[in-house]
């Protein structure tokens, strides 16, 4: 446990240092308006698809190589089997520990259904990858939203770089692909509502992080850069 914490701290520091370098030597110039690397506004879909495909390969390799967080993975295994066997209507009445909302349980029902159709063992390597596939795909979808949002203000290379920083972030890989945690699913939802807030130019209720922010009815936008101030 102590080694895992030390590894997480080390990876977090390396990731933070990497992002600071990326910002200082690349993004800072576009944010401040000093330099524009590429003025073409059309999105190059092939670039982001290749990036996400490469990220998927990396994440699947880690997902298959590591068993994940023992307690949580065992819960996911058991919940997926129980909800598939008893259905969502009876699942929460069973004499078993459950602390996840119905939405994610329905996703686990789909995972269990796929296992049953293809006769995949629950705790086999492939069964483990199926459990981790949900947060892994959520990471990729969130990375795509990062690219779409960034592309509205930054150049194609810089937008790809920001997406790269997220989808191949060592901490994100450690969280979803290695440990099998579900934070990526909720991060994806947050990114989606953030995108909705930018498009509507007001804070989406589900995008507010606390009661104080939720009371702000609208964002004020800078006329110069059309950014929230």
Detailed description of the structure:
The chain contains ten helices and no strands. By secondary structure, the protein is an all-alpha fold. The chain has one domain. The longest helix is centred in the N-terminal third of the chain and has 30 residues, at 2-31. The termini are far apart.
In short:
With about 230 residues, the chain is mostly helical.
Which blocks of ≥5 consecutive residues have pLDDT under 50? 209-229
Overall form: elongated
Total helices: the number is 10
Summing up helix and strand content along with how strands pair, one would put the structural category as mainly alpha
**Major sheet:** none
Instruction: Report the oligomer.
Output: single chain
* Domain tally: 1
Distance between the termini: 42 Å
Residue share in helices?
A: 55-70%
Question: What attributes characterize this protein structure?
Answer:
229 residues; single chain; mainly alpha; disordered C terminus
Topology:
Blueprint: H1 2-31, H2 45-65, H3 70-86, H4 88-91, H5 102-117, H6 125-151, H7 156-167, H8 170-178, H9 183-200, H10 211-214
């Amino acid at each position: 446990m102590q080694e895992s914490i030390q590894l997480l701290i080390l990876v977090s520091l390396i990731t933070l240092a990497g992002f600071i370098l990326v910002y200082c030597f690349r993004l800072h110039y576009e944010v401040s308006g000093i330099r524009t690397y590429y003025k073409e506004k059309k999105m190059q879909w092939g670039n982001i698809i290749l990036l996400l495909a490469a990220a998927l390969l990396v994440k699947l390799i880690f997902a298959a190589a590591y068993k994940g967080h023992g307690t949580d993975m065992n819960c996911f295994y058991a919940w997926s089997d129980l909800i598939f066997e008893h259905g969502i209507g009876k699942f929460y009445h069973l004499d078993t520990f459950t602390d996840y909302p119905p939405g994610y349980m329905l996703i686990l029902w789909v995972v269990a259904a796929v296992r049953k159709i293809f006769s995949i063992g629950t705790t086999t390597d492939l069964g483990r990858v199926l459990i981790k596939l949900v947060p892994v795909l959520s990471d990729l979808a969130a990375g795509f939203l990062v690219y779409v949002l960034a592309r509205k203000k930054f150049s194609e290379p810089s937008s790809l770089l920001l997406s790269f920083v997220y989808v191949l972030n060592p901490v994100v890989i450690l969280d979803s692909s290695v440990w099998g945690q579900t934070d990526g699913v909720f991060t994806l939802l947050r990114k989606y509502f953030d995108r909705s807030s930018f498009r509507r130019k007001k804070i989406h209720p589900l995008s507010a992080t606390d009661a104080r922010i939720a009371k702000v009815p609208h964002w004020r936008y800078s006329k110069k850069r059309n950014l929230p101030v």
